[in-house]
Each structure stands twice: as C-alpha cells, then as structure tokens.
Amino acid sequence: MNPQNEIIIHTQRIRALAETGLTYSINEADIASYQEMKELSDRLQSLITGIPQEVIKSQYTVTNQYITPKTEIFSIIFNRGEDQNNSEGEYEILLVKNKITNTWCPPRIWSSNDLSPTEAAVEAAKFYGILVHPKKLLAIMDTKSHGDLPSPHYSYKVFVLCKIDDKVKESDREIRFFKENEIPKLFENRIVEEQIKKMFEYAKNENKDVYFD
After folding, report:
1. What's the CA angle centered on 210, arms 207 and 211, to 5 degrees?
2. What digits encode the pLDDT tens for the residues 172-211?
3. CA dist 153 to 58, 75, 109, 201, Å?
4. Rounded (to 5) percent helix, strand, coil in the chain
5. In which domain, by residue range, is 36 found?
6. Residue limits of the UDP-X diphosphatase-like N-terminal oligomerisation domain (predicted)?
7. Is the same domain home to 149 and 173?
8. Quick one: pLDDT at residue 86?
9. Low-confidence ranges of the chain (pLDDT < 50)
10. Which DSSP category does 173 fall into?
11. Kindly report the CA angle at 71 between 21 and 176, in degrees rounded to 5?
12. Which residues pair with 169 in a beta bridge?
C-alpha cells in the first residue's frame, strides 16, 4: 500500500476511536483528550492531502457517534456500438466530466438514509439527466485496496450495472461513452483505472461473479 494512503487510514482510525470515546465518556479529562485526538487527526489529514483542515472537519457528522465507512454508489452504464460492418462493436462505458478538475468518472452518489443501493444508483444517473434501471450488483470495493487517492473519508464503493431506459437528456455536464482503450484522465479521488477495467470484465461476461474485497 502507498505509505501516504496507509497514514490516511491510520488517521481515520484515530478519529473513529476518538468519536467512540466521546460517545461514551463522562470524565471531563477524557472528553478533552478525545476532542484533541479528533483535531490532531484532522490536522494530519490536512497536512498529508493538502485539503484544508476545516474542509476535512466539515465532512464528518457533527454528532458524537461511531464512525463507519461511507458508501459511494456508482451507476455503471455500457453501450455497444456498431463497427464498420454494422455488426456489434466494442463495449463503451459512460463517464461524466467534472467541471472543476476536467477529469472523468461514472455517475456516482454518496448513499443516504432514505435510499436503497439500487435507488441510489438510479439517482446518481438521474442527476445527469440519464434515466436508468438497475440490473445487477457488480462489485463492492474497499478504498484502500485499489490505489484511490487520499480522501477525508474511508469508504466502500458499490458498483451497480444499469441499463438506460431513455436517451440521455441535456445536461450541463459533458457526458460521453468511451471504449476501454480510450479511457480519459479519471477523477482518481473517486475512481481509478483498475476499477474501470474491472467493470469492462462484466460487460464482456455477464455471468461473472460479483467482486468484493
């Protein structure tokens, strides 16, 4: 594992322990110590990632409770174009361009209390004007296992195969299908090339077992 990512994981663990301590402690000295642990964790993450400490702090819930991994849902949408002989061509994956970073990623959303994983997959695509229905769970991946860039959150990534119900509507984001050998620069805080290639394995083999870390 990249040493930088390993340090991030340790700081996230320290913060989780501090949150748990704050949940159950009644001693004022203990509470002060756990609060300082949280602040030190945020400071270390800020120094390592370059993300301002206040931004990192704002990403966590304000109530004292157990810290558990966040869940990120990806809508994986494939298209199969035609080749020059009008027969089925190569598979293509739908990606959305991030306006700020000019990088690409499949439609995605953080899970919330009021959405099931399949509902979240639908909402992730709908946000970009894409109406889909979920077909199959493809993979559940752990952030630390696939070379993702450091992030304030420790998270699990859930990849759901979706089929388009209707043509893509107009969106203020650039949306395109890409062949496996034409993948553009990815938004690596959210997804990396290894994960995209894993998704193409499912396009080529619908009977492939669900991947999970």
Report:
1. 130
2. 789 999 999 999 999 988 899 999 999 999 999 989 999 9
3. 11, 20, 14, 28
4. 35, 25, 35
5. 3-59
6. 12-57
7. yes
8. 43
9. 84-86
10. S
11. 150
12. none
Token couple for 86: 């009008």
Give the contacts of 96 (CB within 8 A, at least 6 positions apart): 104, 105, 106, 107, 128, 173, 174, 175
Last residue of a domain, one of 11, 38, 59: 59
Reduced to 3 states, what is the DSSP secondary structure of residue 42? helix
How far is CA 29 from each of CA 41, 67, 179, rounded to the nearest angstrom?
A: 18, 22, 58
Q: Provide the residue count of the chain.
A: 213
Smallest CA-to-CA distance from 138 within 39, 45, 209 is with 209
Going by C-beta distance under 8 Å and a sequence separation of 6 or more, which residues neighbour residue 25? 31, 34
The structure tokens 């650039």 sit at: 174
